[in-house]
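Re: the 83-residue chain
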Amino acid sequence: MGHDVVVEISAEFTIEPFVEGAPGPHVRAAIDVAEAAGLAVDVGPFGTAVSGESESVLETVDAVVRAAIDHGATRVSLQLTVT
């Protein structure tokens, strides 16, 4: 792909430990970072997906993972899909 082509990326992440009920602080912190970056956020029962232009998603994924760990995550599973 050339540098002039806009590439979209979807990043799906699952953050553990699971907390019954509302998302735990480790999940909420990750979602807050993604929302602050202006990414589209879709929260599901077993994971969260963010999507946007590749540069924005790639820059934000690091901050999402760090926020989750800083707030108590013991595992973060991440999958990127490029479209």
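The chain is about 35% helix and 35% strand.
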